[in-house]
Design goal:
The complex is a heterodimer of chains A (about 110) and B (about 110). Chain A has strands at about 5, 10-15, 20-25, 30-40, 40-50, 55, 65-70, 75-80, 90-95, 100-105, 105-110. Chain A is mostly beta strands and about 110 residues long. Chain A is globular and about 40 Å long. Chain B is built from no helices and eleven strands. Chain B has strands spanning about 5, 10-15, 20-25, 30-40, 45-50, 55-60, 60-65, 70-75, 85-95, 100-105, 110-114. The chains are: A mainly beta (about 110), B mainly beta (about 110). At the A-B interface, strand 5 and strand 10 of A face strand 4 and strand 5 of B.
Chain lengths: ~110, ~110
């Protein structure tokens, strides 16, 4: 079965450090999404790409977050500098035509 | 503002029993509604997706219903198993054609007890 692969699975770091999360979407999917999940807010859209072009990143704080898709097999989400309030689970998903059909298993981020 | 409300927030039932989870939405104009199952420590997995013209769709022991007039959906689980313990998330898409047109519910946390 094709899968969305995310690395790392877990990340613990200190406030102020740079964090990079990586995602390998399913080949052939034209839309890639980044979501953040917390107990309080549930799943929130941070950014998404269609055919590798960034379409919307209004869901993330642009002064510290950046999302890129350097090629069809890799999407990245960076936080610099990280803050304790960024602690959450970050999911990448891919699909066709704006539908997140398949999610990765997430990166569990803890900022101390 | 588009909203998706799920109930109950959490539910505990005995193995073998049936249960029904609810999803009410105010998303307009409506495009489709999807139910996801999310196991602890894993990403959501799509169970069913329904468009405006569909009012029932099954996936094994899972049956989703949609009433577009009342803007309600339900997910019925038959003969529950321990592996059904998970969070179930309802997601409604509007017809705007963008990923920001998806509205997520906060989920129902289901526990199946032996």
């Amino acid at each position: 079965d094709a899968r969305v692969t995310q690395t790392p699975r877990d990340k613990v770091t200190e406030m102020g450090q740079e964090v990079t999360m990586r995602c390998q979407p399913i080949l052939g999917h034209n839309t890639v999404f980044w979501y953040r999940q917390t107990m309080m807010q549930g799943l929130e859209l941070l950014a998404y790409f269609r055919n590798r072009a960034p379409l919307d990143d209004s869901g993330m704080p642009k002064d510290r977050f950046s999302a890129e898709m350097p090629d069809a097999t890799l999407a990245t989400l960076k936080i610099q500098p990280s803050e304790p309030r960024d602690s959450a689970v970050y999911f990448c998903a891919s699909g066709l035509d704006y539908q997140p059909q398949h999610f990765g298993d997430g990166t569990r981020l803890s900022i101390l | 503002k588009n909203q998706v409300e799920q109930s109950p927030q959490s539910l505990i039932i005995l193995e073998g029993k049936n249960c029904t989870l609810q999803c009410n939405y105010t998303v307009s104009p409506f495009s489709n509604l999807r139910w996801y199952k999310q196991d602890t420590g894993r990403g959501p997995v799509s169970l069913t997706i329904m468009t405006f013209s569909e009012n029932t769709k099954s996936n094994g022991r899972y049956t989703a219903t949609l009433d577009a007039d009342t803007k309600q959906s339900s997910l019925h689980i038959t003969a529950s198993q321990l592996s059904d313990s998970a969070s179930y998330i309802c997601v409604v898409s509007d017809s705007g054609g963008g990923a920001d047109g998806l509205t997520f519910g906060k989920g129902t946390h289901l526990i199946i007890q032996p």
